[in-house]
Structure formats: structure tokens, C-alpha cells
Design goal:
alpha+beta; disordered N terminus; five-stranded mixed sheet; about 425 residues; five-stranded antiparallel sheet
């Protein structure tokens, strides 16, 4: 089985290669050429040991992607002379407080900083998108499981519209979303919903870009039925795809659409919410195209031929951000929310709630505001986490004192017996 739809799609950057790239960026630059080499663990990213460690391995590349994304302004933000929230994400301290930032461990063993701002931008921030995608994966896995446990079936459709290489994202995206909204008002759809025992739907939006075909927005839709008459469901979905292809100005190819019945093995569907799992598999598939976050990743690790390609990659990301503001990544119909209200009440959260939700299992280290500002100035946040994971407090100290900004760094023990960087 090939996992699909991760934020970084199929970029093949081995962890050793990534480690070397970031070693070069942080420790062989003109800015720090006079500094002494690190005396331990110069591999800043680390090595993949098992699948569950992939997210930790790529902390640095996700941070670098976010750093690049910070420079992007939408037209509205430019007109209003307003800084985008992503500029504060992972950098600014929460609230007006002088309390130290805490380096913590969660109940799954992961390390994170507590007390800093998150932007909650799924369409914009790769770091927040990772958290949001993981939540949506769990939410939909649970929702699908609850429905299938009743012996009911779920249909899975992929719908798109014809698009040209030079069509703007706005044109293709507006056509796709407007036509699907209107299609659902047609007599055919309304009548079949009643006849088929249609309980509700989950709609997910995905957008890719390729040099050969331009922008390619498409919908992944789950139809929840109150029975398991597979022949009846398949007949309806095939007819729907046929009607959709010729609806209004869709002018779509039937072979470009897809329909099937979701089996009990939902891994293919849920894989679209797994951001990091494919970052080590193969090169980018040209038929699939780039996601905007893949474009950011290629910039972050210098995977482009020349300055022209770099600008084109950044343009893909910028256009994506501009046209997705206010759009929802996942839409769950109200009828489904009502049917599974107890489950939804427990697991359904806003993007902002998701990114700000933390489970602190243990506080490991405190960082004074003055030192935190210097860490942010040098963009060392992911390296601090990785260094602590590798070699504890000693690893963090050796990392920071490599930089001239931290030549006077000291460690004290506070009244709660926590080490504090000051």
C-alpha cells in the first residue's frame, strides 16, 4: 500500500542528508565561521530509528518551512498593514508575562515548548498543519469506525473539474466549490439521498500544482449510508460521477473522477491526513504534483535548480495561501454531527483549540524570556528540542554556547528544583 496526500508528498530526503544541510546552514555560515565546532552530537536533525520518530526527525525542516512562510503577506494583510499571525507562531510568548518558557515532555514522550504562541493556520503554517492533521485523522478514524460498527457502509468519491495549465487557482477552486454546492440542490441528488438512506457527508479539500497541468483542486467526499446495500450504493455513485462530469461548466473527464465503497481497512483514506509519513519515500510524483507545503520544503532544503525555480516554488505557496483564506480543510455535515453528537462533542475541536491543547507529563527545563528571545533570534527552537532529546541539558548547553549570543549563558535551579537557562 502506498500512502498518499501527506503535506510533503513523496520527497526523498534521507535524514543524514538533511542533517548535513542544516549543519551547513547553522554552523558553517559566514556569521559563525569563527566559532568553535560542537564537541558532541553535531548531527542536528538525528536519524530515523522507527516510524514513530519521523515527526521528531523533521522538526527542523518544518521549522525552516515556517520561517520561509513568515515572509508571505496576503493582499488584505498588505492593505491593512497587518502582520500575519504566522510571524508570531513558535516565537512570541503567550500573553503579557515574564514567566519562563518551559521545555516539556508530553504523555507520548514528545518534547515541546509551553508558553509560546501558535497561529492555528492549516492552510499556511506547516507546524500547525501537522497538529491539525493529526487531530483530523483521529477524528475521522473514530467517526468512520463508529459508523461501520453499526454495519453501515460509507462511499468514497474524488471529484474534480477540467482545468487548464494557465487557469488561476481562484478560477478552478471557485468552480469546484460553487458547482458542488449547486449540484447538491439538484432533484437527482435530493431524491437519491432519500431513497438511499443518506445520513450525511464529510468533505475534504486538497490542492496540488504541477508545471504540466497547473492548479488541480479536488474534493474527497465520504457518503455515510444507513445500510450496506453495496450494489445500490455503487449504482448511485457511478451515476453521480457521470452527472457531475457534465454538470454546468465542469466539462470533466469521467476517468478523472473516482468512486468506491470504503472497506474496513481505511488506511488509504486516512493516509491523506498523515503529514510526515511519506517524507522518506521516493521522489515527488510528477503525476501527483506539488502541494504548497512540498514547495516550501524544497525551498527549505535547497532542492531547486536555480533562483527562477526557487521563486516559482514560493509563488505556488503564496498563491495557495491567498486563495485558501477562510476555506475549511474538513467539513462534516450537520446531520452527521447530530447523529454522532456524543462522539463529536468529545473529539471535534476548532483549529485554534487543537494547536493550543497540550498535555504536560513532565517539565524538563525552563528558559528565561531573555534567553528565549536569543534562541528565536538565531532560529534555534527545533535544535534545542532535538539536542535535549539526544543529550539532555548538557546537549542544550553545548548547542547554545556555540553561538556568541550565549557566551554568558548560565544555569540556575529555581525553588521548584527545575533548571533554568538565564
Amino acid at each position: 500500500m502506498v500512502l498518499k496526500y501527506s503535506i510533503l508528498h513523496n520527497i526523498n530526503y534521507g535524514s543524514e542528508k538533511l542533517a548535513q544541510i542544516f549543519d551547513n546552514q547553522y554552523f558553517r555560515s559566514e556569521r559563525y565561521k569563527l566559532a568553535k565546532p560542537l564537541d558532541n552530537n553535531t548531527d542536528l536533525v538525528g536519524h530515523i530509528k522507527h516510524k514513530s520518530d519521523i515527526s521528531s526527525v523533521y522538526k527542523t525542516v518544518l521549522h525552516r518551512m515556517r520561517f520561509i512562510a513568515k515572509s508571505n503577506y496576503t493582499i488584505k494583510e498588505t492593505k491593512e498593514k497587518r502582520k500575519p499571525r504566522i510571524q508570531f507562531c513558535g516565537y512570541a510568548v503567550n500573553g503579557n508575562t515574564n514567566q519562563p518558557i518551559k521545555l516539556c515532555r508530553n504523555d507520548k514522550g514528545g518534547l515541546f515548548f509551553n508558553g509560546i504562541a501558535n497561529c492555528g493556520g492549516y492552510w499556511r503554517c506547516p507546524v500547525c498543519a501537522l497538529k491539525i492533521s493529526e487531530n483530523k485523522k483521529e477524528l475521522l478514524s473514530g467517526l468512520i469506525g463508529a459508523h461501520q460498527s453499526k454495519g453501515f457502509s460509507i462511499g468514497f468519491l474524488t471529484l474534480t473539474v477540467r482545468h487548464g495549465k494557465f487557469d488561476t487557482l481562484k478560477k478552478s477552486l471557485d468552480k469546484l466549490l460553487d458547482n458542488w454546492r449547486l449540484f447538491q440542490t439538484q432533484r437527482f441528488f435530493k431524491e437519491q439521498k432519500k431513497l438511499l438512506g443518506f445520513m450525511g457527508q464529510v468533505k475534504t479539500l486538497e490542492i496540488t500544482w504541477s508545471q504540466e497541468n497547473g492548479w488541480h483542486p479536488h474534493l474527497h467526499i465520504l457518503f455515510f449510508y444507513n445500510h450496506s446495500d453495496l450494489k445500490k450504493i455503487e449504482k448511485f455513485q457511478k451515476e453521480l460521477v457521470k452527472r457531475w462530469a457534465s454538470y454546468r461548466d465542469n466539462n470533466a473527464l469521467i476517468k478523472g473522477q473516482n468512486q468506491k465503497i470504503l472497506s474496513n481497512d481505511i488506511s488509504d483514506y486516512i493516509a491523506k491526513y498523515d503529514i510526515t509519513s511519506e517524507m522518506t519515500k521516493g521522489q515527488i510524483k510528477s503525476s501527483k504534483g506539488l502541494t504548497p507545503f512540498t514547495a516550501l520544503a524544497k525551498i527549505a532544503v535547497g532542492d531547486y535548480e536555480d533562483e527562477f525555480e526557487k521563486r516559482r516554488l514560493y509563488g505556488v505557496y503564496s498563491c495557495y495561501v491567498e486563495q485558501t483564506q477562510g476555506k475549511h480543510f474538513v467539513n462534516i455535515s450537520n446531520s452527521l454531527r447530530q447523529e454522532y453528537s456524543e462522539f463529536m462533542e468529545e473529539f471535534d475541536k476548532t483549529d485554534e483549540q487543537i494547536v493550543n491543547e497540550v498535555t504536560i507529563d513532565e517539565v524538563l527545563l525552563k528558559i528565561s524570556i531573555a534567553i528565549w528571545k536569543k534562541i528565536c533570534k538565531n532560529d534555534l527552537q527545533p535544535l534545542v528540542l532535538n539536542k535535549y532529546k539526544e543529550n539532555g541539558l548538557e546537549g542544550v548547553y553545548n548547542l547554545l554556547t556555540f553561538f556568541r549570543d550565549f557566551k554568558d549563558l548560565e544555569i540556575e535551579i529555581d525553588k521548584e528544583q527545575f533548571p533554568v537557562l538565564i
